[in-house]
Amino acid sequence: MKKPIIAAIALILGAMAAFTAARWVNVAQHTGPKVVIVALPIELGKAITAEQIKAVNWPGTDAPQGAYANTADVVSRIARVSMMPGEPVLPGKLAPKGATGGLASIIPDGKRAITVKVNEVIAVAGFALPGSYVDVLVSGKDASHQPFARTVLNRVKVLAIAQETTAEPDKPKVVNAVTLELTPHESEKLDLARSIGSLSLVLRNELDTGEENSAGVRMSDLMYAQSTSGTSSSTTAHAPASRQYRGPEEIRGTSRQSVATP
């Protein structure tokens, strides 16, 4: 008889705990601060519509810093980044008030956008997408008309491919122009680099923030070192030494001896 009573008491206590928790969550959802969140996907560079956002009570008492409480403060603003449903709309994700949209609205302060022509090989076969990071190489000839290749810019962000600022990562697209995000000084370096040779983009891991300070390569770095006589040193070092002829020999097992000629 004791076991059924204990079980009944446990069930009652469990039900009371569940009721209390549900009531607490319900109260928290209805008493938390209002926060504007994304309801439908938002593309960068586009104006936000009323259907794409909604105001909800944020769980707890601390709302995300800078979060908007009224949808009217967000409607018609230009998105600087893409946003997915459920995330709060924060000031850093929006272009300044008065922005008209397009590429210019997503360029950060102090940065510039410059477009370079590429082909399907140089643009890493279409895998350089908006948001990707690339290194920029230049190949050409120096003052002595000797060919060279060198990295001139490290970890440059791709803003757009062709006229598109968004792309599907699993569907690479071959284009003939890529727009890069640069500082004014980097823009000058890139403009000079493309005037002396052809440019190549090297795709890199987006988490790799290292900077490569390479001296570049020249034709001599691709060839074997040559000796002063013009013969390959590697060939000379491995050439077998010639043996002087000593007349006829007789070989028995592992021994060798000269044989006198009649």
UniProtKB/TrEMBL annotation:
Originating species: Chlorobium luteolum (strain DSM 273 / BCRC 81028 / 2530)
Coiled coil stretches, renumbered: none
Key word Signal present: yes
Signal sequence extent: 1-17
Biased composition (Low complexity): 225-242
Name of the featured protein: Pilus assembly protein CpaB
Pfam families, sorted: RcpC (PF16976), SAF (PF08666)
Domain named SAF: residues: 33-95
Keywords: Signal
